[in-house]
Amino acid sequence: MFRMGGIDDDDKLDSEATKRVLRRAIRMGAPFKKTVFTALAFVALSTTGLLLGPVIVRYGIDNGIDGGDRDVLRNAVIAYAIVVVVAYVAARQQYIFVNRAGEGLLQALRVRTFDHIQKQSLAFFDRYQSGVLISRMTADIESMAELVQWGLLQFVAAVFLISIALLLMLALSWELTLVALLVMPIIIIASRKFQRDSNAAYLVVRERVGQNLAELQEGISGVRVIQAYAQEGEQTRQFVESNRSLYKSHVHSIRVSTWYFGLVEAMGVFATALAIGIGGWLENRGDVSVGTIVAFVLLLSALFEPVQQLSQLYNTVQSSAAALNKLFTILDTEPDIQDGTHDLPHRGELVVDDIGFTYPATDTPVLGGVSLRVADGERLALVGPTGAGKSTVAKLMARLYDPTVGSISLGGIDLRDATLDSLRERIVVVPQEGFLFGGSIADNVRIARPGATDAELRAALDAIGALERFEEFEDGIDTEVRERGSRLSAGERQLVSLARAALVDPAVLVLDEATSNLDPGTEVIVERALDRLMNGRTTIVVAHRLSTIKRADRIAVISGGRLTELGSHDELVDLGGHYAELSSAWESSLPR
């Protein structure tokens, strides 16, 4: 049996929240107001044409057919044809203009959201998983498409159509209007129930779609593990269960719609039958004409369709408002890393002053009381056990995060006060794995400085000794790297990352375990490139290989979120502390 449940509270908004979200969306659509007003003008024109048709039919029947005046009948036919053509053209134009405005709003919203996400710090991406952000950019924005492209148009047209149709019906015959409205209480009660049931059904469908996509993604992403343990059958069984649940939710939503639309259609037929029956009796009494009855029946058919549309629109508004609310939550998130007003100097001492840090996603401090002074041009290695906080210190020194307490400065300028442009020029991070984008090797190096010339690009590659290696490829540095750099080896991808840093020519280089994922053969090439890149620069190295650590001027041991030892390799070995134990373990693990 189908059960409702497991609905995300974020999908439920009360009426006030819905109105607030929609008002904000309308304000965002202000640049497209001319297009919207043009669309509304065509809505009014097409709706007027639709309602004028029955009036012209009444005139033609009463004055042309019953009156025996062929000229009147001919004129009525011509007028009706003109009205139909005008209404048709206006209807097509209203769709064009409303979709132009709707697509314009969605395009602007996508760009604004993407730009806002790009400006966020790493703390933001700790709070939001990439899948959630992609969902906001795709599924949530697409769920609004129906509202901005069709929903608002339907709402305006339906309200206009119902209002004018009722006025015309009253003008034609108040008696027939009262008869037709006898079914409205039933439709109103049914519409309220439909809105409640269909909204719940929609939310379940949305949840089941998400679960089904999650099963599909895991099945594809983890196919190697699945095949390695011969679990294809079990994965298929789980997907079948997820798919069956999605199927049941869709079937339930169809049942909810079927009974309601069937009821509205039946009430429309019943109201039409009453209008014809009572209309015939009134015509025999001489209270109404045959043309009035025909016009009334035509107006009734135009009245019940917008009633259905308004009920459907309720769910569209609810789902779109929920999607917008989630999107606005992201847009309202201020970047943690704010732009400062001072340019960082090209050289200077890097000072870490009593910093502490707590990741936004947790309440547990990961660093406390860490102080360091790194001289201009000095190489400092950060070592320690996994999870001790060494990578966190490096990220704070590059201002990928701001410390919770304390400060970090370069050349006397607090990094919080630095402009982001000068910060990213003076301090560059080379991550553990060099991420490559689709495009050529040259395109990927140029990401560091989009305006760099070909000569500067080649100079950067040559500075780390990688130019000759890449020019050996058939297409040289114009070689396509394919998705995530799959055409290149791990070492070659890291060489591209180092070339990016060389192109920027920073004052401070932060290497976050830049050689940890390399095989011994490739490591030699990358290590040689690193030596060239580090020459003459302040360098912070997060390292776990003894060969890298020994080349540092000083070594800072981070343990339990605190700086426990500081000195050269020989000094710390002689100290006999934590570093001496690590060094001994590394020495014993080396091949003999």
UniProtKB/TrEMBL annotation:
CDD domains (UniProt xref): ABC_6TM_Rv0194_D2_like
GO cellular component: plasma membrane
Keyword Nucleotide-binding recorded: yes
Any single Pfam family the record assigns to this protein: ABC_membrane
Regions that span the bilayer: 36-61, 73-91, 147-166, 172-190, 258-282, 288-304
GO MF term list: ABC-type oligopeptide transporter activity; ATP binding; ATP hydrolysis activity
Membrane topology designation: Multi-pass membrane protein
ABC transmembrane type-1 domain segment(s): 37-319
ABC transporter domain residues: 350-585
Keywords: ATP-binding, Cell inner membrane, Cell membrane, Membrane, Nucleotide-binding, Transmembrane, Transmembrane helix, Transport
PANTHER family the UniProt entry points to: ATP-BINDING CASSETTE SUB-FAMILY B MEMBER 10, MITOCHONDRIAL, ATP-DEPENDENT PERMEASE MDL1, MITOCHONDRIAL
Protein name: Putative ABC transporter permease/ATP-binding protein
